[in-house]
Design brief:
Shape: flat
Helix content: over 70%
Structural class: mainly alpha
Strand content: under 5%
Number of helices: 15
Largest sheet: none
Number of domains: 2
């Protein structure tokens, strides 16, 4: 029995080395090309290539989206997809690529096991999401975390196959939670390509605001789910108190900075120069000159500053909200532990 076990361990270890070596080799081979996508010139070359070879270009786009899931070194590829294929087809192709990448990760982790996860996920995230090993509501936890931006989704993609969640639940009910953010990114790229700058700004404001919300509330969301697991109930109160202090500081920074920017913007909007910029933008309705750009930024920026102020107020109010932790319930937890 021990010989069989040792043989399995050796096979998994060799498979792990082979997979890592293959991924490193592929990454090194295509890294110069991937880095070119970080520049406007590189993205423009990709767009021209895909437009010239539709079938091959479509497969390349799906492959890039899948590769982004496995090794997240590519900038948001969905924006390029929106510019090339439009909102509907860009979203569809992005989600196909997402499923392909997730399927590859899922299969590799199931084949090799925990050593592969250790190779691609840092120890901090492994420790942070240890509570996911408990079966209680794991699918709901994954769904909510996938739905919220700025969460470590790449780490969770490697951890998902090791949880009690079955394959059907993961691919049919959990992964679709990533669709709304994909559609937003694709629609943003499509609106820029179509010259619909107003829609592009509105979508960018929504994406930035959602990103800010995700960043400042992600720890609170994770702490909430930790409380629901037996192994973390003892330390959840301490973590929550610490995060509330950080949340309060973040809320104050957002409130003060957004108020200052709003006041400056309102002062600028009261000037004759702003009116000149506005009339020029209405006449030409493009962003070819600095006057149009100034009007565009100040006009739509005001909405973003107000939305950031609202987010800051929400963070501040939540951070100062007192919660009662009865001493007897804490003693019961310690007794159960």
């Amino acid at each position: 029995m021990s010989k069989r076990l040792n043989k399995k361990i050796i096979i998994k270890f060799l498979a792990l080395i082979a997979i890592i070596a293959l991924m490193i080799g592929v990454t090194i081979a295509i890294l110069p090309w991937v880095n070119s996508l970080r520049t406007p010139e590189g993205r423009e070359k990709l767009e021209l290539y895909i437009e010239s070879k539709k079938t091959v270009g479509t497969l390349i786009y799906i492959g890039l989206q899948a590769f982004q899931v496995i090794l997240p070194v590519i900038p948001p590829i969905q924006i390029i997809g929106g510019a090339l294929f439009g909102t509907f087809w860009g979203s569809l192709l992005s989600f196909i690529g997402l499923y392909v990448g997730m399927g590859i990760v899922y299969g590799l982790v199931r084949l090799v096991g925990y050593p592969l996860v250790e190779a691609f996920v840092n120890q901090k995230n492994l420790k942070r999401f240890k509570f996911l090993q408990e079966p209680d509501k794991v699918a709901l936890i994954f769904f909510v975390i996938y739905l919220i931006p700025a969460m470590p989704k790449d780490a969770l993609s490697f951890l998902a196959p090791l949880t009690s969640m079955d394959k059907k639940t993961y691919f049919l009910y959990v992964l679709p939670a990533r669709l709304p953010l994909v559609i937003l990114s694709v629609a943003f790229g499509s609106s820029i390509s179509d010259g619909n700058y107003s829609l592009a700004v509105i979508l960018s404001i929504i994406m930035i605001d959602i990103g800010i919300i995700g960043i400042i509330f992600r720890e609170k969301v994770i702490n909430y789910f930790e409380k629901k697991t037996k192994s973390k109930r003892l330390t959840s109160h301490k973590n929550d108190t610490k995060h509330n202090k950080n949340l309060k500081k973040t809320g104050l920074i957002l409130i003060i900075s957004s108020l200052a920017l709003t006041i400056c913007d309102l002062i600028f909007m009261a000037t004759d120069y702003f009116n000149k910029c506005k009339s020029e933008f209405i006449d030409y309705h493009n962003l070819s000159g600095k006057n149009q750009i100034f009007y565009f930024i100040s006009n739509y920026g005001l909405y973003w500053f107000i939305s950031v102020f609202v987010i800051g107020m929400a963070a501040f109010i939540i951070s100062i909200k007192k919660r009662k932790y009865p001493s007897n319930s804490r003693n019961n937890i310690e007794h159960q532990a």
